[in-house]
Design a protein that fits this description.
Blueprint lengths: L3 E2 L5 H9 L6 H11 L12 H10 E2 L3 E8 L6 E7 L4 E9 L2 E5 L3 E3 L14 E4 L2 H15 L6 E6 L9 H12 L11 E5 L3 H8 L6 E5 L5 H7 L8 H15 L3 E7 L7 H11 L4 E7 L13 H13 L4 E3 L13 H11 L1
Parallel strand pairs: 1-2, 6-9, 9-10, 10-11, 11-12, 12-13, 13-14
Antiparallel strand pairs: 3-4, 4-5, 5-6, 7-8
Helix pairs in contact: 1-2, 4-5, 6-8, 9-10
Length: about 350
């Protein structure tokens, strides 16, 4: 029998689950407090031993364990490899800033979006993560950071997977991570990245969740975008931008456009001019990302001078933009690289 993931349960669902054990109503509050601390069932020492034993049979507190971690000597970024109960692997990244630590979170094992510059998609999508497996990454990292007196302050759903392709679990995770009985992290400190699933973007705008929406645009037009993102064959760039405008109007929050600069494809000044024209009047920011080269792909980043020229051109057109600082370069910080290396090693 598959065990219930306690971290996947809301406080109301947890109370209902515990009633099956004839436990007192206050036990749900106690268990919830332990879950928020990332504790195992065995560590829930204020529960009766008999209840803990029955919970061990029927449930698991955190379905995620940190299997390996690597800390950058350059900038203190830390790459994490998590193992799930079924043996699958996903990745995470801790980015340490003076204002608080940011965790890059995975939402699927692998990904089926097929973006040409991303290693996460090379193995395809194995399965969706549950809300508890997403929350479990936060819980595991908080325990990992305890020794430094730190904890997760910001979350970016930009690890492996397309969050809106796992819509129901992602939305439930956001409500759980925000809940006072769990991590109590403000959703204004959460960013969700999508490659542009238009129907889901429109639905998400109506969820009442004030997260920052980051859209992987990577091109100023459909012709260029189709070279990089297969999803561009399903949704035209105008439809993506229209959904972005609707998100801004509905939530009152600006959107972020992720733009990976790829040499010879999308980083000429004419591309900057076209991008600026498309974004004019939209409350947004452009995050320019010099490409992280993936060994299995034939794509390369431009020179830093080209990235800076692209930035200046956007700014001259009054588009808010920055060039993202490269982090974790010495520890395979980009999405999917560590998992793929470990899978290849284990197959060999």
């Amino acid at each position: 029998m598959e065990r219930t993931q306690l971290l996947s349960l809301t406080q109301e669902e947890l109370a209902a689950f515990l009633r099956e054990f004839d436990s007192a109503a206050f036990r749900a509050r106690q268990v919830g407090q332990w879950l928020a601390r990332g504790a195992s069932i065995a560590e829930m020492t204020n529960l009766p031993a008999a209840l803990r034993a029955r919970l061990e049979e029927r449930a698991v507190a955190n379905p995620v364990a940190i299997r390996e971690h690597f800390r950058s000597r350059i900038d203190d970024t830390e790459k994490l490899l998590y193992e799930l109960l079924d043996g699958n692997l996903v990745e995470g990244v801790i980015m340490r800033y003076h204002y608080g630590d940011t965790l890059c979170l995975s939402t699927q094992v692998g990904c089926r979006m097929g973006c040409r510059f991303c290693a996460s998609t090379l193995e395809g999508r194995v399965r969706d993560l549950t809300a508890g497996e997403m929350l479990g990454q936060v819980a595991a990292v908080n325990r990992h950071l305890e020794k430094e007196g730190r904890k997760v302050h910001n979350i970016v759903l930009m690890g492996s997977g397309e969050p809106l392709d796992n819509y129901a679990n992602t939305v439930k995770f956001l409500r759980l991570v925000n809940a006072p009985e769990r991590m109590n992290i403000s959703l204004r400190n959460v960013s969700l990245s999508t490659c542009g699933l238009v129907p889901q973007m429109r639905a998400f705008a109506k969820e009442g969740l004030p997260v920052t929406l980051s859209i992987s645009l990577h091109a100023p037009n459909d012709e260029v975008r189709k070279k990089l993102l297969p999803i561009a064959n399903a949704y035209a760039i105008e439809d993506v931008l229209l959904a972005a405008r609707e998100y801004v109007e509905t939530t009152g929050r600006r959107v972020i456009f992720e733009y990976a600069l790829v040499k010879g494809i999308n980083c000429e000044l004419r591309h900057a001019d076209e991008l600026a024209a498309r974004l004019r009047g939209l409350r947004c920011h452009v995050n320019l990302i010099p490409l992280n080269a993936v060994r299995e792909r034939d794509l390369n980043p431009p020179a830093r001078s080209e990235a800076e020229a692209f930035l200046r051109r956007l700014e001259a057109r009054r588009i808010s933009a920055t060039v993202r600082r490269e982090m974790g370069a010495d520890i395979e910080g980009a999405c999917g690289q560590l998992r793929r290396r470990v899978l290849k090693r284990e197959r060999n």
